[in-house]
Write a structure and sequence with these properties.
This protein is an alpha/beta fold. It is built from nine helices and eleven strands.
Length: 271
């Protein structure tokens, strides 16, 4: 990629090497994520979500960045990446040391009240849910085992006996600070992402098929302004026709090689 700095747009494919599955990879099973309309419109859907999330969020919290995340953090430290726009909610870019990260779809670690907008940590909510459901995790895990979904949910079916909790301040509905399917990304985040793209000389798209417009719009924006665009992804993406370069490959392997090669160039230049 020519140019001095790249803005990086990432998706679930960059986190699979950390043990978090993606939604649409070549080997991913069919998944039906809960929509915003289901969550806000039906208490049964909310109970089902919180029961699953009560088991799954700790798995995401315990995951560690992989070599791909660390390579991007290294590229940023060396002035070759101006920032990361991620569609993931796993916080792995931040854990890896990337300093300028825009969590486009929010993150798993915070919860907000839909009525009063009060925010609490997921740890705080976990303590409250555990007091209401002291034997839930043990009974479900013992009966069925637990499969983790990409959005910090555990894939379980029996959730009717799970007890939810509401906002302690106003009694409103609690929701993860995550943008659901069917929900709009906050305007300020979209504007901040466009600004990050505009500051860079090129766009690097990593680990996303761009199936949803949430990420694709930034690729179209970069193409409209004549920016070089490179893709690293296993499988085709919706933006391939706009790409300057496409690599059908694993994200970790490619990013590590790029970071190593640029480190060598920098070392030779300073010698």
């Amino acid at each position: 990629m020519r140019g001095r700095t790249s803005c990086v747009l990432t998706g679930a494919g960059i986190s699979t090497d950390s043990g978090i599955p993606d939604y649409r990879g070549p080997d991913s099973p069919p998944r039906t994520p809960m929509t915003y309309q289901q969550f806000v419109g039906d208490p049964a859907f909310r109970r089902h979500y919180w029961a699953r999330n009560h088991l799954g969020w700790r798995h995401m919290d315990s995951t560690r960045p992989n070599l791909g995340h660390r390579a991007l953090a290294s590229l940023e430290r060396n002035g070759l990446v101006n920032g990361v726009i991620t569609q993931n909610v796993d916080l792995l870019h931040t854990k890896a040391g990337s300093r300028r990260v825009l969590d486009l779809h929010g993150c798993y670690a915070q919860v907000r009240c839909l009525s009063c907008d009060n925010a609490i940590s997921r740890v705080t909510l976990a303590d409250r849910l555990e007091r209401k459901n002291p034997d839930f995790a043990r009974s479900v895990t013992a009966a069925t085992g637990v499969e983790i979904a990409p959005d910090a949910d555990a894939v379980i079916s029996e959730t009717e006996h799970f007890v939810m909790v509401d906002c302690e301040i106003c009694g409103g509905t609690l929701k993860p600070d995550i943008v659901y399917f069917g929900e709009s990304v906050p305007k300020w985040r979209v504007e901040a992402a466009y600004a990050m793209v505009d500051e860079a000389d090129s766009l690097l798209v990593v680990g996303t098929s761009l199936t949803v417009m949430s990420g694709l719009r930034f690729v179209r924006h970069a193409a409209k302004h004549g920016m070089p665009i490179a893709f690293v992804n296993r499988g085709a993406t919706r933006g391939d026709d706009l790409a300057t370069l496409t690599l059908d490959a694993g994200t970790s392997e490619v990013l590590v090689e790029v970071a190593a090669a640029l480190d060598q160039i920098g070392t030779r230049s300073s010698a």
